[in-house]
Write a structure and sequence with these properties.
The structure is a single chain. The protein is α+β, with helices and mostly antiparallel strands. The chain is built from 5 helices and 3 strands. The protein has helices spanning 2-14, 17-26, 33-37, 44-57, 75-113; strands at 31-32, 60-65, 68-73. Strands 1-3-2 form a 3-stranded antiparallel β-sheet. A hairpin with a 2-residue loop joins strand 2 (60-65) and strand 3 (68-73). This is Metalloregulator ArsR/SmtB family transcription factor. InterPro entries: ArsR-like_HTH, HTH_ArsR_DNA-bd_dom, WH-like_DNA-bd_sf, WH_DNA-bd_sf. Residues 1-93 form the HTH arsR-type domain.
Length: 115
């Protein structure tokens, strides 16, 4: 059940374009909040709400040194999301392959019958 909660909160966090952009940026390396907030046309308090959602989901962690808060991506949590998506992709690809095989078999039988 805990894994579902983690996925639920991760997908909720990733449902917002600002938060996805922050995660994308952090995948290139850690960054201070001020740098992360610069590309977005919103006040720092609004931006901090996005960071709070990301941190609550476990996708990022922050640490404060003096007056600077630095954000880090948590690749292990992103890996859990990627693993779930890969599992779903595999299931749907297998279903699609079985459907394609079925259709091909039906077409070949139709050709043999001349119908």
């Amino acid at each position: 059940m805990e894994n579902h909660f983690a996925l639920d909160t991760a997908f909720h966090a990733l449902s917002d374009p600002t938060r996805r952009a922050v995660v994308s940026r952090l995948m290139r390396g850690s960054a201070p909040v001020k740098e992360l907030a610069e590309p977005f046309a919103m006040g720092l308090p609004s931006f901090m709400k996005h960071l709070k959602v990301l941190e609550g989901s476990g996708l990022i962690r922050t640490e404060k040194a003096g007056r600077v808060r630095t954000c880090h991506a948590r690749r292990d949590r992103l890996q859990a999301v990627e693993t779930w998506l890969a599992e779903q992709r595999g299931l749907w690809e297998a279903r699609s392959d079985r459907l394609a095989d079925y259709v091909e078999n039906q077409m070949s039988w139709s050709d043999e019958d001349g119908s």
